[in-house]
Amino acid sequence: MKKRTRSSQEPTLLVGTAKGAFAIASDGNRRRWTLRGPFHFGSRVHDFRADPRDRKTWLATSTGGHLGPTIFRSTDRGRSWKEATRPPRFGSLGKKRKPGRATGSRGQAVTIDFFLAPGSAGERGSWYCGTSPSGLFRSDDGGRSWSGIPGFNDAPTWWDWTEGGKSGSPEGALLHSIEVDPRDREHLFVSMSSGGTFESFDLGRHWKPLNRGVAAPVPTPSPDYGHDPHCMILHPADPDRLYQQNHCGIYRLDRARTDTWERIGRNMPRAVGDIGFPIVAHPSDPDTVWVFPMDGTQLWPRTSPGGRPAVYRTRDGGVRWERLDGGLPRRDCFWTVFRQAMAADADERRTGLYFGTTCGEVWASRDGGESWARVAEHLPRILSLRVT
Amino acid sequence: MIVHVGSVLHAYTGGKSAVEASGRTVRAVLADLERRFPGLRFRVIDEQERIRTHMRIYVGNRPVSDLASAVKAEDELHILGALSGG
């Protein structure tokens, strides 16, 4: 039997909601769950993550209804918090300059700190943050201070890829997926809604679109950018393999072999389709991922198809998909799971899988999604769920 | 001068709804507030020096949108969350 890692023995779910953040800790069997919080009560917490390098430092983004966006940091698992001394912020335009390609993102103002990602394992204290409007920021001091990455934010391509910061989701333009190649700290991937997926080999100084093969709802045939990834992940068990849940399907990319994404969502049941927000990787099997399909027909209600929520899993890289809905509501259920509101723990054999809903429920599975139990309810609308 | 701050900023002022600050312009008063209550200014003013959409600043009972607006020592400043909810 494969060993269970420390984080899977007593996982804690870090839940960001529209009204604050919560930590839901499990016992060793992942049967009993204890809720703590709210932290940052009244704020929208779009992301709430633990530092995987020490597991005691927590970062939470915070956007108020009135107040501007910021980031809070705790080094004692949420008992006390300190605000970043310099939260992510775009550069200024300078006098008499007009915004355009030459100025990139300068002149924009961050409205949401949307996505947090720890830097590489060897760079303690390094973090990335994606914002709305789409911007990429980095901290080298554990989240205390943040600086824009000029090669992304201030390049003329930023203007092209984001349509001047305007093009985006109903929430606004979002930079929402940030992945660091564990073998090479300078090899980065980001995704934007909308804009697409982009790759850098030099720690963010230069970027190229990585969208070949991905469908886009535009008249231009095979555009280089302008796509709408909802969630992009680098598989932890194979850093050459990327997956994405896109506005237009589910895709896999074996980067060492090709730069063209393959639409593995075509193998999903036609009645369910392959639209959704999250995609989650198995801790050790690069062929296994889970998705949470939603209705992307006609007016895009973005709820479970037919009012019957289900997780779908592939264990062969997307050739076949299986429906996993044991214990979930069987009918008349119309919530959604957002892009960073579903996660797996590190148990390789009986992987814990978790998601939070737009109706404030947290569901957990101790067997890779085969069966589900609700572990929290009546929380605010859940924006993110991470496992530590 | 006295600066009245709305409840959304009380986490920065230690729960106080009125604090002391000085300056000859709104910008200078905000700078003084930032020295006394680190982090407060960025929650009110964005990085392009604009008052955030859902915040309001008044000098006396006069709303201001220009941070260069002059203030006198006897003025009272109000920094409030806008009535923009439902």
Description:
The complex is a heterodimer of chains A (388) and B (86). By secondary structure, chain A is mainly beta. Chain A contains three helices and 28 strands. In chain A, the strands form seven sheets. Chain A has a four-stranded antiparallel β-sheet, with no helix packed on it. Chain B has helices at 26-36, 40-44, and strands at 2-5, 18-20, 55-59, 62-64, 76-81. In chain B, strand 3 and strand 4 form a beta hairpin. The interface between A and B is medium-sized, with 18 and 21 residues.
List the SSEs and their pairings.
The complex is a heterodimer of chains A (388) and B (86).
Chain A: H1 6-9, E1 12-17, E2 20-26, E3 33-39, E4 48-50, E5 58-62, E6 70-74, E7 82-83, E8 112-118, E9 127-132, E10 135-139, E11 147-148, H2 150-153, H3 156-162, E12 174-180, E13 188-193, E14 196-200, E15 208-209, E16 229-234, E17 241-246, E18 249-254, E19 262-263, E20 276-281, E21 289-293, E22 311-314, E23 322-324, E24 342-344, E25 353-356, E26 362-365, E27 373-376, E28 382-387
Antiparallel strand pairs in A: 1-2, 1-28, 2-3, 4-5, 5-6, 6-7, 8-9, 9-10, 10-11, 12-13, 13-14, 14-15, 16-17, 17-18, 18-19, 20-21, 21-22, 22-23, 24-25, 25-26, 26-27
Chain B: E1 2-5, E2 18-20, H1 26-36, H2 40-44, E3 55-59, E4 62-64, E5 76-81
Parallel strand pairs in B: 1-5
Antiparallel strand pairs in B: 1-2, 3-4, 3-5
